[in-house]
Specification:
It is built from eleven helices and 13 strands. With about 350 residues, the protein is an alpha/beta fold. It has two domains: about 170 residues, 3-Layer(aba) Sandwich (Peroxisomal Thiolase, Chain A, domain 1), CATH 3.40.47.10; about 150 residues, Peroxisomal Thiolase, Chain A, domain 1 (3-Layer(aba) Sandwich). The strands form four sheets. Strands 1-7-6-4-5 form a five-stranded mixed beta sheet, with helices on both faces. Strand 12 and strand 13 form a beta hairpin. The structure holds acetyl coenzyme *A (ACO).
Length: about 350
């Protein structure tokens, strides 16, 4: 077991139930074939290396905020709650609408949930799982009864569209869940973990000024305010961390891998996910993959997986579900729930 696990074990008092979910997907589909007309790439390369076939990109009149509002509204509706029931909204994103105010503050306003608390958090692709854990912790203390947790990204505004190493990977989208305090002791978050290793920050960063570019950096594409990524290093980090993080979570929670109904993994690369599934001996479809349709939507990817499975009727009350994400920072996190 990882030495840090004991520290991260929450003493949960009031259980939180995942009461509803929602999603907002931009209408515009960008296929690999379309991308290959603007950068030197091909459908075959992208599919073989990543599993991505298309991604969604925002169009006229859409934004991180509008996607968050749509996903949030749906989640509230499916939880059968009114906006005024919300104690707080947390938006996990690495592509916020603005640096300030938070996207969450404007989301709360547009939902009609004022004066609910509002905060954005940034943990790159791990952001939603971090936010889910933090929201479950807040409910556990009794401070709030209902919290909206959104994972949203508009990465199309953050990638360098002339850099084929990154622009083929990412997509836009948002998904949300509502957590509600619940009296059933059998439901809720039964284990959570959150980790970081900032020494690896150079492997995925978005420089605002020239000062932010590491010395002797070989990956900088030349454009400030765009995502820079050392794909090989991130790949190595993901492959070496994903499987162990899943095993640590089930061990710490005292459950067996076989008992999990679904493992909702951040969709960074189908090869990374399928490799981990193979090594864990998971030959069925319990590790869900939808990167072929959405690309890597960073903080939105894990809640998008959850919402799709929930809408498909593949997740029901009583199921054990593990949320897992890894990303820039470097960061990684898990959240194990009994639905
Ligand atoms: N089309 C065609 N060729 C390309 C493309 C492209 N889109 N991108 C890179 N190449 C070329 C490279 O230039 C290189 O050419 P060279 O050999 O002539 O130099 C060749 O393909 C191989 O490049 P690699 O980088 O070694 O390719 P690799 O097999 O590692 O795949 C990839 C690259 C897909 C990016 C992989 O490294 C990966 O998935 N890494 C993890 C990425 C990831 O998960 N990022 C998200 C992190 S999570 C978050 O927090 C956002």
């Amino acid at each position: 077991m990882n030495a840090g696990l004991a520290r991260s074990q929450p003493r949960i008092r009031i259980p939180a139930r995942i009461a509803g979910s929602g999603a907002a997907i931009p209408a515009r589909v960008v296929t690999n074939a379309e991308l290959s007309r603007t950068v030197d790439t091909s459908d075959a390369w992208i599919v073989q290396r990543t599993g991505i076939r298309q991604r969604y990109i925002i169009g006229e009149g859409q934004s991180l905020l509008s996607l968050s509002v749509e996903a949030g509204r749906q989640a509230l509706q499916s939880a059968q709650l009114a906006p005024g029931d919300l104690g707080m909204a947390i938006v996990a994103t690495m592509s916020p609408q603005m640096l300030t105010p938070s996207t969450a503050a404007r989301l709360v306003d547009q939902l009609g949930a004022t004066p609910a608390g509002a905060v954005d958090i940034g943990a790159a692709c791990s952001g939603f799982v971090y936010a889910l854990n933090m929201a479950a912790g807040l409910i556990a203390t009794g401070a709030m009864n209902n919290i909206l947790v959104v994972g949203a990204e508009v990465l199309s505004q953050t990638v360098d569209w002339s850099d084929r190493r990154t622009c083929v990977l990412f997509g836009d989208g948002a998904a949300a869940v509502v957590l509600s305090a619940d009296s059933s002791p059998n439901q809720g978050c039964i284990h959570q973990s959150m980790y970081s290793n900032g020494a690896g920050w150079r492997d995925l960063y978005c420089p605002r000024t020239n000062q932010d570019i590491p010395e002797n950096d070989a990956i900088f594409s030349g454009k400030l305010n765009t995502l820079q990524m050392n794909g090989r290093e991130i790949y190595r980090f993901a492959v070496s961390t994903l499987e162990q993080t899943i095993l640590d979570a089930v061990e710490a929670a005292g459950v067996e891998l076989d008992q999990l109904k679904a493992i909702l993994v951040h969709q960074s690369n189908a090869r990374i996910i399928e490799g981990a599934a193979r090594r864990l001996g998971l030959t069925d479809d319990r590790i869900y993959v939808n990167i072929d349709r959405f690309g890597n939507t960073a903080a939105a990817s894990v809640p998008l997986c959850f919402h799709e499975l929930r809408c498909a009727g593949r997740l029901v009350e009583g199921d054990l579900v593990l949320f897992v994400a890894l990303g820039g920072g470097l960061t990684w996190a898990t959240s194990l729930w009994r639905l």
